[in-house]
Amino acid sequence: MGKLLWEPSEARKKQANLTRFMDFVNKKSGQKLTDYNELYNWSIENSPAFWEAMWEFGGIKASRPYDQVVDSFEDLLGSKWFVGARLNFAENLLRFQDDRTALIFKGEAMAEPVSITYRQLHDQVARLAKSLRELGVTAGDRVAGFMPNMIETVVAMLATTSIGAIWSSCSPDFGIKGVFDRFGQIQPKVLFTANGYSYNGKTHDSLERVAAILKEIPSIERVVVVPYTEKQADISNVPKAVHYQDFLSPEAGLQIEFTQLPFDHPVYIMYSSGTTGIPKCIVHGAGGTLIQHLKELILHTDLTQQDTIFYYTTCGWMMWNWLVSSLAVGATVLLFDGSPFYPDAGAVWKLAQEVGVTVFGTSAKYLESVEKAGVKPGVSYDLSKIKAILSTGSPLSVESFEFVYRDIKQDVCLSSISGGTDIISCFALGNPTRPVYAGELQCRGLGMKVQSFDRNQKPLINQKGELVCTAAFPSMPIYFWNDPENKKYRSAYFDVYPNVWRHGDYIEITGYGGVIIYGRSDATLNPGGVRIGTAEIYRQVETLPEILDSIVVGQDWENDVRVILFVKTAEGVVLTDELIKKIKSTIRENTTPRHVPAKVIAVRDIPYTLNGKKVEMAVRNIIHNQPVLNQDAMANPGALELFKDLPELKA
Questions:
Q1: Coil, strand, or helix at residue 79?
Q2: Domain-by-domain residue ranges, the chain?
């Protein structure tokens, strides 16, 4: 058991949505559940009853009720949920039409945030939906967003999904090839873009890339340009382009025609990271996404109408889709676009103070970077309203857990969460009714039969193994695009354990129900046949002030695998033999001799995806002279050149 860092008060536990839900289940199903473990076990042993309870507790709006909660439950890939129901995704997110604040937007170059009420949001969606219908957009068409994280992006998504069309987006820092590799596969009818975006004090043009993208994707019939870095952008060089305000219907008082569709009608197309091949197009259903997000936001995040929720994300990461679903709860959603370190490392904490954020979401890498920068947000800013801090993207180290409670806030539920684009949600989450232990995710998600498997499909407790899910759940992808026989789908998740979802994470489930993530299992190191999670090494290296960042991979060597650690040193620090000795001894003393790298090599930069994940497999490919096929998915693809033909790896 890790170090205890926080426990909820009895009052907080009593007031939690999770407690209300447990009472609801007890009354509805005649149970006598008293704590989370009992509720969790009930939810996986009685999965249809759990999801039915969540439908009712979440207040899902449907024009036609379901005939059956789940069909073919025993067949993970073939299961169908809430059969017969008819609903609309956007209608559920737009259930409120009052004068409370729905969205607040702040770009890094903006002096002040702008906001929009739920009533105004409904009006803008109605006007945009009318324009899209008049253009000929119908259910099943694709509409793409090459947009910053701003209000108009949310409006475009809601207008699209109100019709039953499918929304897909990527962030504007993607290169032309990266956009084509994604949108080129799905052939959208409409493309929304801003004229540009700002990052770290610099303004970048988007329209030149959009013009090039149009040449590659002839299906795009209209480009709708939102002014952002300029009040009125010059669109003369962009074919099929129209200004957002000119495209928006001028009519006032419109009602939205919410197209009623089956529970598993597609709503989003997401993309795998694509760092080792062309991205897979993962299609998610409206109902499954909705009910899973409601579960995670209401029960695991304890979100209410009184909350203001923020997540540092771009529109190319599933956390954007997750964040926007907060509208269905009636919360206020804070959107931020730009660098969280501009004009300084306290930028988003200052914004959280000004807006009154209660749920603050970010990545593990960001928290680590804030600590390395010497920032103490709890000292510099008033964060008294924050009740929960969420972290995902990569495993949150023990040191970052301790940093949060030491230098950000003591009385806060720190929820390290883990899932993926694949399920547009999480396998392990926070829990407002349970304590927080350093280095551990608080619990497995309700209704998610998550286990840790060994190679013989044996469940493990307090031992490391593969993250698997052994029962169907509603937010599984409904299919992959252009994969009619589900070959890619089966290969991605079901090729190791028959009829069991293998996610690709290396985890440990503790005896009391917590989860420890050790990194991606496909990047797991195997020196001498002993499995080592990369996060175990990062945790030790990141404690050293001399090291800013690192990445560790396995190199095939003399019929075995040896551990190679690449480090980016702090400014003015040279990787000497003495420092290498310190790194190795730190790892050895806190892990095992097997964890100690055979080589420690200095590099100027560490490669990341645009979503902030270290690309261990790409580095491994490079050092083995294998191609990295889709570098446009990376934030800094040039960093890969630093790993080519290193003499240190030849001896």
A1: coil
A2: 118-262, 524-650
